[in-house]
């Protein structure tokens, strides 16, 4: 039983690190653009399918992930140009933005099904044996996923804390109008927000496809854990989102022997509700 519990924790850390990457992108778009983007999960799916597209023509899986991130960022910037910038100019309400994002999510998902079909697919990668660490079977792909997630999060930390654009992003998150008056190039901040969100979300989708399978609804099933991580960690706080995502990922996996896999999302929402009853603003202060 102890070995099984340890195995579930390892699986939970792998899933949690993927949720963390995408949740950081989601919390940045909310913290800076004030956008609750329900299409975020489907951009994650798009990243996985673009990786599949490049990988199936013979490109190395890691280079495929990089090229897929470029494609996902391009699609996010296109949605910014066609939708979100116009909605901000019109001072659209948060309800309007949510409805538009749900419409965008459905458009992306059905577009993916139209192009790639609805069946599960897998990357063209060599089969590797799982490592035996103190009796716990750890697939090498899970270790790679965890390592990549840590590298991406460290890069994000450096960008936010030690670069000029990171300081500008924090200023815009605190007060957009004041930042604009202070001479900060808000359009440049918005571009970087989508660049970071798209890159991390696409990587999350690619990694999720690597440890499970690539399927059209993979991002849709992650959208509730994503929002739970963002809210639980404090809206607009990327570090809080990372910690909350790991908590939710581990809790979801550990609960499966008792509740079954079909109740995983319910566990994520239950944890969020219980914490919010005690700390209504989440575990951490909701600011970049």
UniProtKB/TrEMBL annotation:
Residue spans crossing the bilayer: 12-33, 53-78, 90-116, 143-160, 189-211, 266-284
Keywords carried by this UniProt record: Amino-acid transport, Cell inner membrane, Cell membrane, Membrane, Transmembrane, Transmembrane helix, Transport
Coiled coil (residue ranges): none
CDD domains per UniProt: TM_PBP1_LivH_like
Annotated GO biological process: D-alanine transmembrane transport; L-alanine transport; L-isoleucine import across plasma membrane
GO MF annotation, one: L-phenylalanine transmembrane transporter activity
Pfam families: BPD_transp_2
Main location: membrane
PANTHER family tied to this protein: BRANCHED-CHAIN AMINO ACID TRANSPORT SYSTEM PERMEASE PROTEIN LIVH (PTHR11795), HIGH-AFFINITY BRANCHED-CHAIN AMINO ACID TRANSPORT SYSTEM PERMEASE PROTEIN LIVH (PTHR11795:SF371)
Name recorded for this polypeptide: Branched-chain amino acid ABC transporter permease
Organism encoding this protein: Nostoc minutum NIES-26
Lineage of producing organism: Bacteria, Bacillati, Cyanobacteriota, Cyanophyceae, Nostocales
């Amino acid at each position: 039983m102890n070995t099984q519990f340890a195995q579930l924790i390892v699986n939970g850390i792998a899933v949690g690190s993927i949720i963390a990457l995408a949740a950081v992108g989601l919390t940045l778009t909310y913290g800076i653009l004030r956008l609750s983007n329900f299409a975020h999960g489907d951009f994650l799916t798009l990243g996985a399918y673009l990786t599949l597209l490049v990988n199936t023509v013979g490109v190395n899986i890691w280079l495929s992930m990089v090229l897929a991130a470029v494609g996902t960022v391009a699609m996010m910037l296109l949605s910014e140009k066609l939708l979100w910038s116009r909605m901000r100019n019109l001072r659209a309400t948060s309800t309007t933005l949510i409805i538009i994002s749900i419409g965008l999510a459905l458009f992306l998902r059905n577009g993916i099904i139209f192009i790639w079909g609805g069946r599960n697919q897998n990357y063209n990668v060599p089969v590797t044996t799982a490592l035996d660490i103190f009796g716990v079977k750890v697939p090498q792909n899970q270790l790679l996923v965890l390592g990549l997630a840590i590298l991406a999060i460290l890069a994000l930390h450096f960008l936010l804390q030690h670069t000029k654009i990171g300081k500008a992003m924090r200023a815009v998150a605190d007060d957009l109008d004041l930042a604009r008056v202070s001479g900060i190039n808000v359009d440049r901040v918005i571009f970087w927000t989508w660049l970071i969100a798209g890159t991390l979300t696409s990587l999350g989708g690619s990694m999720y496809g690597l440890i499970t399978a690539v399927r059209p609804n993979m991002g849709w099933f992650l959208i509730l854990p994503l929002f739970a991580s963002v809210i639980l960690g404090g809206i607009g706080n990327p570090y809080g989102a990372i910690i909350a995502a790991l908590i939710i990922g581990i809790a979801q996996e550990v609960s499966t022997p008792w509740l079954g896999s079909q109740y995983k999302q319910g566990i994520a929402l239950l944890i969020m509700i219980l914490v919010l009853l005690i700390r209504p603003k989440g575990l951490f202060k909701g600011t970049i």
